[in-house]
Each structure stands twice: as C-alpha cells, then as structure tokens.
Design goal:
By secondary structure, this protein is mainly β. The chain contains no helices and 15 strands. It has strands at 3-8, 11-17, 29-37, 40-46, 53-61, 64-73, 78-81, 90-98, 110-112, 135-136, 149-152, 158-161, 164-167, 171-179, 188-196. The radius of gyration is 28 Å and the shape is rod-shaped. The protein starts with a strand and ends with a strand.
C-alpha cells in the first residue's frame, strides 16, 4: 500500500492512506492488570509506537461501561488504580492519543475478578488455669487458602507462637485469627476470648 505525507513545511502534520483516511497510532499491547490489595490494582502495558502523545486508561466494571480513569504521559507505562471495591470485577483498556488528538485502537482488555468472602467461621478457646501446659488452637474454618496467624491482646495473660498458646498469668485475653487477601478471597479475621484463673 502506498502512503502520502501531508506537509505544512517544515513540519509533517500526519500521514494518510491513498483514500485520505488518517493512519492511527499503533495500539498499546500486553496490558496486565494485577491486584495489589483489596482496594488497589496495578496496570502495566507495552508500546512500540514512536508517535508522541499520551495514554488514556479506560476501566469498566461488571455493572458499568468503560470510563476514562487517567491520562498518562507516554514515558510512563504503568498505573495504580485505587479506592476500588474488593468484590467488583474490573476490566482495563489502554489507547494512545497522539498530539493531534488521534487515538489508536484500544489494547486487548485485561480483567481482575472480584474477590469472594473468606467465610471464616467463629472459634472458641476454653478457660484455663495458671500453670496449665501450652495448648494448640482449634483453627476456624475458612475458604481462604492463605495461612492463619494468631495474636494475643494481653501478653501478661497468654502469648501465641504459631497456633500454640502459652499461659503467662491470670486474667482475660482475646485471641485474633487473621488471614491476608488471596488471589480469590478477601482478608478475614475473627476473635475468641478466654480467661485464665
């Protein structure tokens, strides 16, 4: 296919095909959206274009159409999208807009699926007496595959190492079971209190 250059000397304004249609800038590619936390997603992309301009990042959810999230300088090929709903699914597109306002075709979409509830169950710890031996916590059930960590609110009453509680002294303490966000499930936590006599 032959091309012609429309010139306003000494500058090249734009290039067009024989049918006078404007040639679009190449579309960004290899767009990747990755969840960083329950409320933040990182988007990266690549671009082989030598056309000067800015990127326009578009976002849609499972309940709404595409809207512009940000206009990003061409030298930057990443963006962190924050204040998001953990349960919504987000899909991203990137386009390059040249200095004349001509947009490239959109990139292929990249989506991040909404998180599900971990559904961590309650758990209980029986009361104990000073001098009792260390004992293991009966873990709550959960759909989240991430490990459960435990903390004690009163280290003068009991400490926790792994899932084992060691009695320190008389009083009441609250044990908190926590899980971080996984690729599929939201973070979760639950508590159980007990008294040492």
């Amino acid at each position: 296919m032959r091309y012609r250059l429309l010139l306003l000397l000494p500058f090249v304004l734009f290039c067009c095909n024989d049918d006078n249609s404007v040639s679009l800038p190449p579309a960004p590619y290899d767009v990747k959206a990755v969840r960083l936390s329950e409320t933040e997603i990182s988007i990266t992309w690549k671009d082989s274009s030598e056309v000067a301009g800015n990127y326009k990042l578009m976002r849609a959810t499972n309940t709404s159409g595409y809207e512009t999230v940000a206009t990003i300088p061409q030298g930057t090929k990443s963006y962190k999208d924050g204040s998001l709903s953990p349960t919504a699914t987000y899909t991203y597109l990137v386009t390059l807009v040249d200095e004349h306002g001509t947009s490239s075709e959109y990139s292929d979409p990249s989506a991040v699926t909404g998180l599900q509830s971990s559904q961590m169950s309650s758990f209980s710890i029986p009361d104990k007496n000073v001098g009792d031996s260390p004992f293991a916590i009966t873990a709550p059930t959960t759909l989240n595959p991430e490990p459960i960590t435990y903390t004690s609110s009163n280290l003068n009453v009991a400490t926790v190492g792994g899932n084992v509680i060691t009695i320190v002294g008389a009083g009441t303490t609250t044990i908190t079971a926590s899980q971080p966000t996984s690729s599929t499930y939201m973070a979760a936590s639950n508590t159980a209190s007990f008294t040492v006599h």
